[in-house]
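Today's session is about reading a structure prediction critically. Students often jump straight to the picture, but the first step is always the sequence itself: look for stretches that repeat, for charged clusters, for runs of hydrophobic residues. Only then move on to the predicted structure, which in these notes is written as discrete structure tokens rather than atom positions. Here is the chain we will use throughout the hour.
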Amino acid sequence: MSYETILFSIGAGIGRLTLNRPDKLNSFNSQMHGEVQHALGRLASGDARVLVLTGAGRGFCAGQDLGDRAIAPGGEGVDLGDSIERHYKPLVLALQGLPMPVIAAVNGVAAGAGANIALACDLVIAARSASFVQAFSKLGLIPDSGGTWSLPRLVGNARALGLTLLGNKLPAEQAAAWGMIWQCVDDALFEATVDALAKQLAVAPTRGLAITKAAIRGSWQRSLAEQLDVERDAQRELGRSADYAEGVAAFGEKRAPNFKGR
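Below is the predicted structure for this chain, in token form.
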């Protein structure tokens, strides 16, 4: 499949998905949703062990393209819930469910659904000039794409309410200081930092990382006793893996491990 609204490649264990509508600040329309879903589906059959999600041009993603006829208000209004059900919900769940780490490389503004799609990724790295905006309140809407779920867990209720009710721009440096994202780096170092992290994760024990992220994300719905059972079962499974055997051997031989992701 050839893409018109995204760029997608897999090489050296790294999947790279770039939202590519720079003239629209990479906002989503129906075509982009379809192409992103198709690209994410290709990861299952490829050799990628990490995914980097970023945007082309000066922005990461401005959320929903309000000029998309599929969501334009009509005489009787529009069912935005249908767009959530068909597009944003599957996208967020797909990103969180990928059996590999997902890096959001936020190169510029991440607004509305774009901000929350970034927060759905496992590691968020932002350029210092980037910012996050919960723009929904300016349109009379509620934060979607998991924003009402992720923000209180990342920054607490007080900050989540301030960000969403006021819709103010949050600079990347402040987002990092609040623990909302993993790292903020100078613009000049941004691409090199993202590439170095992607290369590190591409040779890591992918199966163990996938189970780790699933265990942490699922922990919010479990008691401590239930989570201890999850950890027990995961260690039982991973203790039989080739990567565990390789990791122990490399430790004993004082060399770098050669993980295969299995």
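Discussion point for the tutorial: The radius of gyration is 19 Å.
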